[in-house]
Amino acid sequence: MKKIIIGTLFILLCLILGGKIFMPQACAQEALVGADARITNFYSALQPYGEWILDDTYGWVWSPYNIPVNWRPYSDGHWVDTDGGWAWVSDQPWGWACFHYGRWFYQKNHGWLWYPDTVWAPAWVVWRSGGDMIGWAPLPPKAIWRRDGGLEFSDADAQRVSWHAYNFCYTRDFTAGDLPNHFIEHARNVTIIRDAGVISNTIRMVNDKLVNQVPFQDVIVRALGRPVPRFKIADIESLREHGAAAPAKAEPVELTRLHQSEVVALQTMHNDRRRVLEEEHAREIKNPPPGVPKERLVEQHKAESNALQEQMERERQLLQSQHAQETRIASVSKVPPQRHINVPALRPRENNDKKEDSGSRQGTAARAR
Questions:
Q1: Is 307 a domain residue?
Q2: Beta-carbon count within 10 A of 148 CB
Q3: Overall number of domains in the chain
Q4: Same domain, yes or no, for 91 and 209?
Q5: Are 22 and 107 in contact (CB under 8 A)?
Q6: pTM for the complete prediction?
Q7: Mean pLDDT in runs of 10 for the chain (369 residues)?
Q8: Alpha-carbon span 276 to 271, nearest angstrom
Q9: Domain residues for 361?
Q10: In 3D, which of 157, 60, 64 has the Cα closest to residue 115?
């Protein structure tokens, strides 16, 4: 107890001297001495890829470097069927930790933050399925696994997970290796979740191991028209712990110019997303899904447009907060600040008109009803 109290006082002193909410690097290792295994198990491995932050609600949490302003957990990788159920294979070098241990939550000034934990699972997500679509969102810190009682996360808790935390794709695309290219326009989540039912508590203990038992295996097989290959978790390299890389050094930049260019880039990205959503709405008005009244379609489109506006405002606020943080650090330190949030370059969008078949139109109809 004495050691923990001394460590806590040292952390506070470091924060005061550092003048910022991020843990000053010189203080970090000493401050975490004596902390519980929830942090120390991951500190060295994750230190090159992000920074530990003292959150008012959850204590020490981790913020990754160089994440797009519109990023969401479980969005840069793909799903594979394994002997432990559906497992997330991340493209991130830190994915072995942050998508198989712990939980995620969104904080308006920092974006998505990882809450560490020591229990491994193929993925810690809540699911939704319906209308030929599958969606998943990261479980929040309140979803606690207890060996003697399972996952403490009710259907009511799952219903409260916000639409903006989800990634959705059509069932036929669920196993795609380039899964992010198949995500449904994010703002459409707000109407998709009306009819995509929640599937919670899919984590089970089987033979003393946690598995992810998702009940839509047959639906995926029918959509693909072929069996889904199954892998052994032990054979998937990206699910195992990596050695810590050398800490990345922040490159010197002229912050004012960089920040101005990112504001312009974000506006360009928002204009592109608004245009894409408007084009999708126009196609549906011209060729409405069977059995869907025009008034219902118009109401749905209005909700999605409002959701897009909410999403864009959230991203603007996050970018402004990060810019202010970087400016504050640069004013008191000669070391360039590490960047947590960036604005991704626009990727050419694939024309989905030719890809859309009766299954996707039925999916649209299902969420419009």
A1: yes
A2: 5
A3: 3
A4: yes
A5: no
A6: 0.84
A7: 46 43 47 64 90 92 95 96 95 95 96 96 96 95 92 92 97 96 96 92 90 91 93 81 61 84 95 96 92 91 97 96 91 81 67 43 39
A8: 9
A9: 255-368
A10: 60
